[in-house]
Amino acid sequence: MLFYKPVSEILYHTDLGTYHSFGIEILQGEKRILFVADISTDRESVVKLAEICSQFQPSIIHFYDIVDDFLIRTL
User: Fold this and answer.
1) Gap between the Cα atoms of 45 and 31, Å rounded
2) For 1-75, where are the alpha helices, taking DSSP H only?
């Protein structure tokens, strides 16, 4: 079983300066098998995405597409 966990990040971009963003790590047991950084600055949205993925257990090979769809819908 996979666990999708939101991760808080402090990042820097030359145009934006320092900003707070959230990514998602995918865990299998205690082992991190994938990490997607800087998905959104909206904590609640990333938490909800992680919860949905943990509940429905999509295949890890589809996760980048799921994040792409999430970003398109939140723009």
Assistant:
1) 24
2) 43-56, 63-74
- Give phi and psi for 68, each to the nearest 5: -60, -50
The sheet that has 2-13: what strands, in order across it?
A: 2-13, 17-28, 31-40
Q: Read off the pTM.
A: 0.92
DSSP 41: S
Per-residue pLDDT of 35-59, as tens digits, reads 999 999 999 999 999 999 999 999 9
DSSP state of 16: T
**Measured distance CA(32)–CA(67) in Å, rounded:** 18
Q: What span, in angstroms and rounded, lies between the C-alpha atoms of 17 and 12?
A: 5
Region for residue 38 given its phi and psi (left: phi exceeds 0; alpha: psi -120 to 50; beta: otherwise): left
